[in-house]
Design goal:
Blueprint: E1 13-24, E2 27-40, E3 45-49, H1 56-64, E4 72-80, E5 83-84, H2 90-96, E6 101-104, H3 108-111, H4 118-130, H5 134-147, H6 153-156, H7 166-178, E7 184-188, H8 196-213, E8 216-221, H9 224-230, E9 233-238, E10 241-247, H10 248-253, H11 258-265, E11 316-317, E12 326-327
Helix pairs in contact: 4-5, 4-7, 5-7
Length: 341
Amino acid sequence: MTTAAPAKTETLLAVRDLVVEFGGRGRPTFRAVDGVSFDVRPGQTVGLVGESGCGKSVTSLAIMGLLPKRGNKVAGSATYDGTDLLTLDDREMRDHRGRDIAMIFQDPLSSLNPVVSIGVQVAEVLQRHRGMKKSTAIAESRDLLDQVGIPDPARRLKEYPHQLSGGMRQRALIAMALACKPRLLIADEPTTALDVTIQAQILNLLKELVVDSGTALIMITHDLGVVAGLCDEVNVLYGGRIVETASRHEVFARPRHPYTTGLLGSIPRLDGSRSEQLAAIPGSVADNIPWTSGCAFAPRCSRALEVCRSEAPPLEQDPTAMEEHTLRCHNPNPAEGGEPA
């Protein structure tokens, strides 16, 4: 049975002006996420892209209600199917997590309980959210492990996380995330610790999931190779703000923000067209200025103007684009693309 394609206007998750601040109570505050907004539709894969420290993972943890209650402040809204997740209490959020929204974390070894067998951990999700008896949940867990490509699933059910390879641990996490057939899946760097062969298998698995079930996927990554093979829409983050948003094809064909161009310029090419040394973005994420004072990327940007260090650029529609393409830059690359920052 083929699932009808969702209407383009249908929105499953709408994040608006999300702000996450750490600190307070006499300590200086740090704004890790600063006014992030994006939409996710059923069956769509949306990428959150940027270097470590740009706010990608904090955004996902805020949406999932997994940030510590003390020492931080979360504002804005994250409306899932008409319900603002940020207004729910712990009990209400626990009902949504696993059942409607699931998350795959970056490090499966630290995400899985080391003293509980894989079968019990997967079965707990089914017992908690689908009310299954333990025997039924264990049988379903075996089917889930088989579905995500774990060989000999009946034996693996009885094994512990340290007995599985990195790829199998990540597949077990995906099985737990899929247990209740969530409508929204958040994957936080799910292939970082895996070798390239296993990376490709995990990404193909996620791609099939989205196509077959209509599940929406938020892919958090710093790897634009992952974006090229998986994402429909790309949000590039820097300093806690989105600096460019466009479709995957538009971002790769016409990157307008110097930061996006810099990320693309640092990727090795296999077609032989780039024989010169890879272009690196100078400095690090720590080399920025507050958005309240100007563009956070200005200290690292070769296209920075005087206004970039005194006035923060707004996020605006690119007037040269034939489709929706927004960017936050006073001096973007030429419309046909530009040199890496």
